Amino acid sequence: MGHVLGDVLGVAAAVAVSPLPIIAVILILATPRGRLNGVLFTFGWILGLSALGAVMLVIASPAGASSHGHPAAWAGALKLALGLFLLLFGARRWHRRPKDPSQARLPKWMGAIDRLTPVKVFALGLALAALNAKNAPLTIAAGATIGSAGLPVGQEIASLAVFVVIATCGLLAPLAVFLLGGERAKATLGDWKEWAAQHNVAVMAVLFFVLGLKLFGDGISILVS
Description:
By secondary structure, the protein is mainly alpha-helical. It has helices at residues 2-16, 19-29, 34-63, 73-95, 118-130, 135-147, 153-180, 185-224.
């Protein structure tokens, strides 16, 4: 189990530093129902990651590992494809980044966050976890890594749980600041939001490229071993 956690912890950390979900939860916390909606958004995020990871475990576990104890060839092919996707998407994001960070614009849907009902806030967290162009491939890769390692079911579930907890730290940090930070919380979260908004595209592009390169390399290593 230890070597599997070593493989997925880096991926989980990359999911955790996703700028858009962090900006979204900060905006949600600033609404009149911020305390409730912030918690619901985080639960939606956790459910989205858990559900997508669990689906991959169900798909991957029957295939298991190869006869030599290595991940199956299909896992290598999947990582190769996901790595290539992230590399191309990262290059595209970098090419389209604003030359002046102060000119960066947030997605239009963020302007309607203060009008979302609790149910829609929960659904937003679910979607940003399971359908996001970066988080979904990384969660799929993590699930495939865990599922193809030939671990007992209990260790598979425990490994997925560790992945989800680490991947949620990016949302738990602003939520903790809001709940425990008192009067200084708004100023602190405001500074975080401004930085994330200005550097969102560049941060995402670099993450796409680095993680895409890692998954691409992992895929090649599995296929040629």
